[in-house]
Amino acid sequence: MPIFEYLCEQCGREFEELVFNQSKPVPCPECGSDKTNKLMSRCQFKSGGSGASDGPHSYAQPAAARSGCAGCSGGSCATCH
């Protein structure tokens, strides 16, 4: 689903909004201002366990076969950045 994070320039509030039409400005739910900026969303990956919470690719291989971060098979998270 298209949920985006925004920051209001007028009051400084960060908020999330479900947006289907990106051509219209997204108003701030706090002050109503249309002066909002879309933020880069943060994500979190957990490692060391088994299951869907390990990351988007954790289901591709058994936990014993994975090395490095849960998102790749590079062996080191330094290769992902």
Outline the structure in words.
This protein is mostly beta strands. It folds into 2 domains: 3-38, no CATH class; 46-81, no CATH class. It contains no helices and 3 strands. A 3-stranded antiparallel sheet has the order 2-1-3, with no helix packed on it. A hairpin with a 5-residue loop joins β1 (3-8) and β2. The relative contact order is 0.16.
Task: Set out the fold topology.
Elements: E1 3-8, E2 14-18, E3 36-38
Antiparallel strand pairs: 1-2, 1-3
Total number of helices? 0
Rounded to the nearest angstrom, the distance between the terminal CA atoms is 26 Å
How would you describe the oligomerization state of the chains in this entry? single chain
Shape, per Cα inertia axes: globular
Radius of gyration: 18 Å
**Structural class by SSE content:** mainly beta
Strand content: 15-25%
Number of domains: 2
List key phrases describing it.
single chain; 81 residues; mainly beta; 2 domains; globular
Please provide a brief summary of the model.
The protein has strands at about 5-10, 15-20, 35-40. The chain has about 80 residues and is mainly β.
